[in-house]
Amino acid sequence: MNTTTTQKQFFSEQLLAWYRRHRRDLPWRRSRNPYYIWISEVMLQQTRVDTVIPYFHRFIERFPTMQSLAEAPEEEVLKLWEGLGYYSRARNLQGAVREVQERYGGTVPDTKEEISTLKGVGPYTSGAILSIAYNKPEPAVDGNVMRVLSRYFLIEEDIMKPATRSLMEKLAKELIPGGAAGDFNQGLMELGAMVCTPRSPHCLTCPVMEHCSARDARMEEALPVKKKAKPPRPEYRIAAIVEGSGVHAGKVLIRQRPQEGLLARMWELPHVEVPFAYAAAADGKDGSIAIPPSISLLTDRLAEETIGVRPERRFMRTEHTFSHIHWDMEVVICSLEPSVLPAASGMLMPSHYEWVDSSVMGQYAFPNVFLKLLNRYFQK
DNA sequence: AAGTCGGGGGG
DNA sequence: CCCCCAGACTT
């Protein structure tokens, strides 16, 4: 990288001017309320603009102030986050807002040191809030910014390495024009989203093509350099749709996940992981799960929780990919088997189980994989 | 430095 | 089908 002063100045000036002409009208750009900027930046972590927009509207309608969010029950926050993924973002946001209420008198801190102590506010988000809400000259380096900078300045370091990120932050900070940190940082991201796209960048409409080093070197498609992620590990699971009877007729059994870990505190269909050996025992050529004997793993587990069930028929097979795990899940419809219940009348289910139908599902937050299954079952 | 933590859209 | 996305946190 051999960077000249004119190349940097050109970039800063042209990008800022371009952004002010071409900025999209996004909901969180209609205010400089630090709380709204904060919500948007957290929602936008690893998530597309188009996905976030409806969530952002619902969230600020229900929680218009930090006080309203601080006082809300966590389940309600989680429910508004339902389907967005990375649910710790929602819990961290509420916890951090409570922290701002208590420690900072309800004002979002305006220094890097203070704001960075808040849960879920890392290097990117702190810079984004400080620059966009307070116009402080702090860099906000996300995937878009690293792509733009790696191309314009022909940086061939692996952008997954922390050292490369530090380099990018240093460079991005130097580029901020005086008094225009918010617009410049947003312009950098806007360019990455709209023009300097991951594949087939639209160089002919780019405001800084003239001095783009990657363009000169015909390297724009090859940058940024990024080591490939490991493929998700496969997991095989078998789930039950337990149909209620009597007072629970028309309802199915759901349960809440543990406090920590994957999909923490979300609701789900009862299910168990099936050892690979069981899954591989399937006769099918596609590696499908052998329902017997896998089903007994499920019924045994439920019996341990005082819930006796009897498998009735196969519902469907579904696959779902998380960042690091791939679920291949067989879903079986079961009926209640009162004879297996220790005291069918009196014995209470564990408190993390509930009966639901489609009318009360709205009170529970489900990850998409189970939301889709339940909606299909209830034919929504 | 590597693993954990969701979900969807686009080529 | 693969890649990527307005990342942060833990180990």
TrEMBL record:
Domain HhH-GPD: 43-194
Keyword annotations of the record: 4Fe-4S, DNA damage, DNA repair, DNA-binding, Glycosidase, Hydrolase, Iron, Iron-sulfur, Metal-binding
Keyword Iron: yes
Coiled coil spans: none
Catalytic EC class: hydrolase
Cofactor(s) needed by this chain: [4Fe-4S] cluster
EC number: 3.2.2.31
GO molecular function, one term: purine-specific mismatch base pair DNA N-glycosylase activity
Cofactor binding annotation: Binds 1 [4Fe-4S] cluster.
Entry annotated with the keyword DNA-binding: yes
Listed GO biological process terms: base-excision repair; mismatch repair
Family per similarity comment: Belongs to the Nth/MutY family.
PANTHER family: ADENINE DNA GLYCOSYLASE
NCBIfam families listed in its UniProt record: mutY
This protein's name: Adenine DNA glycosylase
Species whose genome carries this gene: Paenibacillus piri
Taxonomic placement: Bacteria, Bacillati, Bacillota, Bacilli, Bacillales
